[in-house]
Write a structure and sequence with these properties.
By secondary structure, the protein is of the alpha+beta class. The chain folds into 3 domains: 5-184, Rossmann fold (3-Layer(aba) Sandwich); 194-293, Immunoglobulins (Immunoglobulin-like, Sandwich), CATH 2.60.40.10; 298-393, Immunoglobulin-like, CATH 2.60.40. It has 8 helices and 22 strands. It has a 10-stranded mixed β-sheet, with helices on both faces. A 4-stranded antiparallel β-sheet has the order 7-8-12-11, covered by helices on one side. Strands 15-16-20-19 form a 4-stranded antiparallel β-sheet. Strand 4, helix 3 and strand 5 (115-120) form a beta-alpha-beta unit.
């Protein structure tokens, strides 16, 4: 039999979509389809039977089915793992480390499969993006995986789920079944006719970006690239920038490079890029990476000392968004007192932050003896905010 498919549809709570123009499954009648699912797909069973009528469908599922249970079922399964697998996992209340282990274990149990279609769940709460982020981080390491994002299908319609925002309406069941139909609509479970790479991620004063290339091995046409940040799609671009190295390697033209720009808050973000597979139904991972973003100033209040009425304030500060020195402001008891430019040499800072050779400040002021705190702030420029470097009391 040319292809078997396991659909692990553990999609417990999904929310809204525009119906895709689903084509029929391009496979000979008689292929087997094994559906392991939770309550969402229970609602979609009638539509799945209709859309996938050329498959011999077997259902295994119950309300509340989760990834850990799917692994237990696969451990007890005696039948061979099929060539084609569709995984549609939903959130479960386990720690990120446990969820990651569940996904890795699932891919391990599906080792014989040649093609794995992975459905990202809908975003119906703040807890879902980190869950999707963990999914993408795991599946992007497996070259067999194609990703289809259920959230991108349903988010433009509010008629897909019930009033709780969880289970599918009749219309939602039709849309969900059509999505599964479309993503399975490719002849054969063999090689994925797309390839590419994520080459560089950067954070600059003007914003963040990711670049690379994507190529359809069967065509010189430019591919679509979707960029996900922390589990949510942030940008969609065309891979049509000139890459002579790709042209030399594959002989399919040079217009296959991409660069996506976006803005992120300070912190460490997980960035993944995907390109459409040859059939244009699912997405193949080009790669993932961590991007450290810092636009707020960095610095430290090293010392605040009093000698009589004179108070000395020392430290260092710089803004990642600017090569030139920045200003620091001194407040006493909540009132602005003075400011200075942090442009004095600081070898220890330059050692920790290459290129930042002149970041120090050392200023003195006369202040009456009091219990008021002396606070110093680095003044941000560009996208950064003002940053507190610390406070100290110098009563005597």
């Amino acid at each position: 039999m040319r292809a078997l498919a396991v659909v692990l549809a553990l999609v417990g709570a999904l929310t809204t979509l525009v119906p895709p123009a689903g084509a029929g499954v391009v496979v000979p009648p008689g292929d087997d389809l094994f559906v392991v699912h939770d309550s969402v797909v229970i609602n979609a069973r009638p539509q799945l039977r209709h859309r996938l009528e050329s498959w011999n469908v077997e259902y295994l599922g119950f309300h509340g089915m989760q990834a850990v249970a799917a692994n237990e079922f696969l451990d007890r399964r005696t039948a061979p793992i099929p060539d084609t697998v569709v995984v549609a996992l939903n959130f479960n209340r386990r720690t990120p480390a446990q969820v990651k282990a569940d996904f890795q274990g699932l891919l391990s149990r599906l080792a014989p499969a040649k093609r794995i279609i992975w459905v990202l769940p809908g975003i119906y709460g703040d807890h879902i993006p980190p869950f999707r982020e963990t999914m993408l981080d795991v599946v992007s390491q497996d070259v067999r995986v194609e990703v289809v994002d259920w959230h991108e299908y349903y988010r433009t319609s509010k008629q897909i789920v019930d009033y709780l925002g969880v289970h599918l309406t009749d219309y939602g069941a039709w849309v969900y079944a059509a999505m599964i139909d479309r993503v399975l609509d490719r002849v054969g479970p063999g090689d994925l006719p797309s390839t590419g790479n994520v080459g560089q991620m950067s954070s600059r004063p003007t914003g963040e970006s990711v670049s690379g290339w994507a190529l359809d091995l069967e065509s010189a046409a430019s591919r679509r690239v979707d960029v996900y940040v922390d589990g949510e799609r942030r940008r969609r671009v065309r891979a049509d920038r000139t890459r002579q190295d790709v042209a030399a390697a594959y002989g399919l033209g040079a217009e296959h490079g991409f660069r996506a720009r976006f803005g992120l808050e300070d912190g460490t973000h997980r960035v993944c890029a995907f390109t459409a597979t040859g059939a244009g139904r699912g997405m193949q991972a080009l790669g993932c990476g961590s991007l450290d973003v810092r636009h707020d100033p960095l610095g430290d209040l090293g010392a605040v000392k009093r000698a009589g009425r004179e108070v000395q304030v020392r430290g260092w500060a710089f803004d990642p968004d600017r090569e030139a020195a920045i200003r620091v402001h001194v407040y006493v008891g909540g009132r602005f007192v003075t400011g200075a430019v942090a442009d004095e040499p600081r070898a220890n800072v330059a050692s920790a932050h290459p290129g930042r050779t002149h970041t120090g400040f050392d200023l003195s002021m006369e202040l009456p003896v009091s219990d008021d705190a002396v606070c110093v702030y680095a003044i941000g420029v560009g996208r950064g905010r003002n940053e507190s470097l610390g406070c100290a009391s110098v009563p005597s």
